[in-house]
């Protein structure tokens, strides 16, 4: 049987996180990161995952409460966690649009050394000029160029990591100089980067820290198939997961790689209960916490592209149509839909059919817990996805910080271990080793 890969996503700033719950803690205090990471390691997870954001997002020119908790620097947090964990992989989201290859290659190689081979990089891109205003060169890239720059960025970073070999670390005892005159030497002359010199971090324990890519678009899938070790996706049903899995694995083979060289890891949520019925009640309660009246209006505005602050969250949808424009009411966010008029028509039909007000409609259409049930039911669901090739594993996104993973580790993990699909002890030392990827030890 296939082994289930598990990663823990620190909840952070998103619509899944509930900070109104009395059990919710700090999103920025280091103890919160430590608690979640140690819980994941106790559950023998493969890695810990941090998202990122480069600017406070705005709606109607104002900051919404979902964003005020802030986004600490991922690599700084992960370096701290390297000192308080022993086996858990450490993955950070770093933007390839707003960074430079030499600087990032150095930081990731350093994290790999500090952690003994547990570093990973989630590559993301941006064509968002609003976010780019935070950066000295504007940070703006045309949408058509962002993946091209990212592809060259990844290639350049790997050239830097490969600039050291094992032989380069051996010094001549007579002279004290390294025996190789080429240690760390690199030269890259491309469309986006023109750099040369000597890389000053010796080869990392993993050689190449793990590369993850998040994106469901055709461009994103092709980028992952060519460059990534894992792809972070979102698919709510078994059949959708199978279709995505087949498509991505075929692209990997077309790029001359083994299908096992890319791991498919959907991001998922969960709700547990002593029984399936109780779990469903818990899931419904969580969704109402996640979609407050204010959040319901905020999400509706992102589709309508209008100020809807005067509307009753418990009342009907606006009779006016969405405003279709390149200028959006929301800045720094990914658009909820590419066709707002079609979406509005579909939502109106659903609201009429089920007699839903704005808040209940938003709860209905913007997502739900991926796995809902007793620990036995959730363990069965997770294992079925993996064994039927709808995924290689999952990145779990709890709704509470920092204790949201505790119940899963205490109640679901032992059942997966009993099935023989999740390790009971770590048998490898690097993240590549955990995932069975080339170069792992």
Automatic annotation (TrEMBL):
Keywords: Flavoprotein, FMN, Monooxygenase, Oxidoreductase
Any GO MF annotation of the entry: monooxygenase activity
Every Luciferase-like domain range: 24-387
NCBIfam families: FMN_nitrolo (TIGR03860)
Family statement drawn from the similarity comment of this UniProt entry: Belongs to the NtaA/SnaA/DszA monooxygenase family.
EC number: 1.14.-.-
Stated name of the protein: NtaA/DmoA family FMN-dependent monooxygenase
InterPro entries listed in its UniProt record: Diverse_substr_monoxygenases, Luciferase-like_dom, Luciferase-like_sf, NTA_MOA
Top-level taxonomic group: Bacteria
């Amino acid at each position: 049987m296939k082994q289930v890969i598990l990663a823990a996503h620190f909840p952070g700033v998103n619509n899944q996180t509930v900070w109104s719950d009395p059990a919710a803690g700090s999103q920025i205090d280091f103890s919160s990161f430590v608690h979640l990471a140690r819980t994941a390691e106790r559950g023998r997870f493969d890695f810990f995952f941090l998202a990122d954001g480069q600017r406070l997002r705005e709606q109607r020119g104002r900051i919404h409460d979902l964003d005020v908790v802030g986004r600490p620097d991922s690599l700084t947090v992960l370096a701290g966690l390297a000192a308080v964990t022993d086996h858990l992989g450490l993955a950070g989201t770093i933007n390839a649009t707003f960074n430079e290859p030499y600087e990032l290659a150095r930081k990731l190689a350093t994290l790999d050394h500090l952690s003994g081979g547990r570093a990973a990089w989630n590559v993301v891109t941006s064509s968002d000029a609003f976010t780019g205003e935070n950066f000295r060169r504007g940070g703006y890239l045309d949408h058509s160029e962002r993946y091209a720059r990212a592809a060259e960025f990844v290639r350049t970073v790997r050239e830097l990591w490969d600039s050291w070999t094992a032989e380069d670390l051996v010094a001549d005892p007579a002279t004290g100089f390294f025996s190789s005159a080429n240690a760390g030497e690199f030269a890259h002359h491309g469309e986006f980067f023109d750099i040369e010199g000597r890389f000053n971090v010796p080869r990392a324990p993993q050689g190449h820290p793990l590369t993850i890519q998040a994106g469901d678009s055709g461009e994103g899938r092709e980028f992952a198939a060519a460059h990534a070790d894992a792809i972070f996706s979102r698919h709510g049903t078994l059949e959708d997961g199978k279709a995505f899995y087949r498509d991505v694995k075929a692209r990997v083979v077309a790029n001359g790689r083994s299908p096992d060289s890319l791991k498919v890891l959907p991001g998922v949520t969960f709700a547990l209960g002593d029984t399936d019925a109780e779990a469903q009640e818990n899931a419904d309660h969580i969704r109402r916490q996640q979609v407050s009246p204010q959040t319901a209006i905020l999400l509706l505005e992102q589709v309508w592209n209008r100020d809807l602050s005067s509307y009753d969250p418990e009342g009907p949808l606006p009779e006016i149509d969405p405003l279709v424009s390149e200028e959006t009411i929301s800045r720094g966010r990914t658009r909820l839909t590419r066709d707002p008029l079609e979406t509005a028509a579909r939502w109106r039909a659903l609201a009429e059919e089920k007699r839903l007000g704005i808040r209940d409609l938003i709860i209905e259409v913007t997502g739900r817990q991926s796995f809902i049930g007793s620990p036995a039911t959730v363990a069965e669901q997770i294992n079925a996805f993996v064994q039927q090739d709808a995924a290689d594993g999952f990145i779990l996104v709890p709704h509470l910080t920092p204790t949201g993973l505790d119940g899963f580790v205490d109640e679901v993990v032992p059942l997966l271990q009993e099935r023989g699909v999740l390790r009971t002890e770590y048998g490898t030392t690097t993240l590549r080793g955990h995932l069975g990827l080339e170069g792992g030890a």
